[in-house]
Amino acid sequence: MAEDLSRVQRLKYRAWRRGMRECDLVLGAFADANLATMTSGDLDAFEALMEAPDDQLWTWILGSAEPDPEFAGPMLDRVIAFGREELS
To answer: Which of 4, 36, 37, 50 stands the most exposed, by the fewest C-beta atoms within 10 Å?
Structure first.
């Protein structure tokens, strides 16, 4: 349990400090709202998504590009929906 808490804290830190402010705001807010209740599998998926380049992730959130297959999936769908809600 302590390991999961530490992992959640690390992921929140990474989500808020990616480099591109727009992605920081979406991913950081998403992390704050969701990470504490995620399963280990969800955390794995979010951690993998953190490897996506900011510029690509931003185009996926905006809907101006299709996600790369390696990042596509339920977690990215959740982040995109959250990001679009935040932007509206």
So the answer is: 37
Q: Quick check: 31 and 11 in contact, CB under 8 A?
A: yes
Please check the confidence at residue 1 and state whether its pLDDT lies above 60: no
- Rounded Cα distance, 44 and 6, in Å: 14
Three-state DSSP at 22 gives helix
Integer Cα distance of 63 and 43 in angstroms: 24
Which pLDDT tens digit goes with each residue over 23-72? 999 999 999 999 999 999 999 999 999 999 999 999 999 999 999 999 99
DSSP state of 68: P
Cβ atoms < 10 Å from Cβ of 17? 10
Predicted confidence (pLDDT) at residue 20 exceeds the cutoff of 70 = yes
Using CA atoms, how far apart are residues 46 and 4, in angstroms rounded to an integer? Answer: 13
